[in-house]
Design brief:
Elements lengths: L1 H24 L28 H14 L1 H5 L4 H20 L4 H4 L1 H21 L4 E2 L4 E2 L4 H33 L2 H9 L1
């Protein structure tokens, strides 16, 4: 029964994360991907403080949401499918590992997304021709280090805002509602 609950919880978390992310990917300002990512779904990463089911759930949710971009962006989006999902998995593992210290635990998604995602985004954006703005005379094609450093800052700040300003209050509400205690009892 414990294994069934874990699978069900993982599936539910994956569905919530993926649905929230896919909605944001529809916004015309491209807030869901790129060097500035503002995905409210990242607030759900705090669930890894409460249950180990969040680890595969967040990984699968990210995989599904990022795969959604394959239809619009093309095969180059596989970089995001693979490495974005790995960043989420690493962040969720960190969060579960340090769950007893909430502030430190929530740093996991921030750190791993800030370090991993900007490493491949310059290749993805260059493949889409988004490094050149001829009208402004801007051409950053070959400026991987500059774009990586910029991405570390912007993605780190955006992720930090979402995880700490939205996720931490969400976690507090879930704990106040008794969910943490209930999950701990069911997981034993």
């Amino acid at each position: 029964m414990k294994h069934t609950r874990l699978i069900a919880r993982s599936g539910l978390i994956a569905a919530v994360y993926a649905a929230m992310t896919i909605v944001v990917l529809q916004f015309p300002a491209y807030l869901g991907w790129g060097l500035i990512q503002f995905r409210p779904s990242e607030a759900v990463t705090v669930l890894a403080v409460l249950t180990p089911a969040a680890i595969p759930g967040l990984f699968l949710g990210t995989l599904v949401a990022n795969a959604f971009n394959l239809a619009t962006v093309g095969p180059i989006a596989l970089l995001d499918v693979v490495f974005g999902s790995i960043a989420t998995l690493a962040g969720a593992l960190w969060t579960w590992r340090f769950r007893a210290r909430t502030a430190l635990a929530l740093a996991g998604p921030v750190i791993f997304n800030a370090l991993i995602v900007p490493a491949y985004l310059p290749f993805l954006l260059a493949g889409l021709g988004l490094y050149r703005v001829p009208l402004l005379g801007v051409d950053l094609e070959g400026a991987w280090l500059v774009m990586y450093a910029y991405g570390v800052v912007t993605i780190g700040v955006c992720e930090g805002i979402i995880v700490y300003a939205l996720g931490w209050p969400l976690l507090a509400v879930l704990k106040a509602a008794g969910l943490a205690k209930r999950l701990a009892e069911e997981d034993q």
